[in-house]
Amino acid sequence: MTETLAENTVASVHYTGTLPGSGEVFDTSEGRDPLTFLVGHKQMIPGFEEEMMGAKVGERRTFTLEPERAYGQRMEDAVQQIERSQFGDIEPEVGMMLMSDIGPFTVTEVADDLVTVDFNHKLAGETLEFSVEVVELRAASEEELAHGHAHGPGGHHH
Known about the structure:
Elements: E1 9-18, E2 25-28, E3 35-38, H1 46-52, E4 60-65, E5 79-83, E6 97-100, E7 103-110, E8 114-118, E9 128-139, H2 142-147
Antiparallel strand pairs: 1-2, 1-3, 1-9, 4-9, 5-8, 6-7, 7-8
């Protein structure tokens, strides 16, 4: 049993993420299963792991991440216009999140034959506040380390 959150441990945490300005909750695990991740394998935004290093089971930490340590700054060139015909059978609507070959994007504007899309993460440019409680820590198995991610409570793929 590992004592603290460290590289190559599998951590289960409950978390709530809020936007400090408005207090809006953008993501939370409360009321669901805890989030389980393999520490040190880039599954989480960089600041999240940095702030949680050394935490013990039952410990709660609250921290604020600037955009550089979260989802990065917004990039203007990540906003692009695409021919409506590129959407095929999908009727693009503002706010719709879709997946493309180069990653997810959000539809921000729909004109007659051009659709404006934004490849920025919706939290890009935002400062984020997290409240995180460590629920469980364990050493990662050989298999998990080989695969680079945690395999759930029973140690297998879902």
